[in-house]
Amino acid sequence: MSAPAIRLKQVVKTFGPITAVDGLDLEVPTGICLGLLGPNGAGKSTTMRLLTGQAIADSGSIDVLGHSLPSDGKRARAEMGVVPQLDNLDVDVTVEENLAVFARLYRVADVPDAVDRALELARLTDRRRDRVDELSGGMRRRLLLARGLVHEPRLVLLDEPTVGLDPQIRTQLWSLIDELRGQGVTILMSTHYIEEAERLADEVAVMTAGSIIARGRPADLVLEHAGRETAEIYAAPAALAEHRERAEAAGLRVRPAGPAIAVMGAERATDGLIPESAVRRAASLEDVFVLLTGEEAE
What we know:
The chain is an alpha/beta fold.
């Protein structure tokens, strides 16, 4: 078995009184897409910054592609591609010039070929001579992805890759990431979008308060924590409280669901425990996310 692409052991990172990463243990096997799923403030972006050398851990060990960080960070960064959450493109030059600069920084042997390949992957070939400030938000996000891939890295870090995008553009970017995943590139993707994790990740690691609290294939996580069926019960607050108390007394897990409560593992409920008016549906990763983190999903 090959060594994992990423290995963090008991990593701690604090900012003053705030512990952003708290004893984090994380391994990412080579060739998979791991979704780091958690609410805002869970420590996902700090973890990404530790892996790219933008932040230094207070304690613990970090290995990326066989290189120990931060001592061997330069060689590790040469073999990874990073797609940041924030748009930091150079707006004063063209699309292809943005890519060419990064190709040279990574000492790519054939810069024009690398630029052509990245443009094709991001479906921006016909916009290659446009200035960046002429692009739409979705195109700029695709250019960020192309820039992170211009040197054909073995490992790609995607930090909230579709945050702030409308659903149609988000779906387009998912298709590009899915193509990358299909090529066997190792991907670590942080996200707080449930559907993004379900759609793209081979495995999901649920993160909150700076540590991983659950990990597995999405379907396995759902079965383990939420069962096969969820029943959503709508009623007045007093009645909901009563339904919740009865369900939890019967050993079922319950979470808030807007104006309703969601009773997980409803397939195990005894007669009369779930009212006929309840809406029954397949259990989902959203159920797991809210149950484990206590945060509403997006």
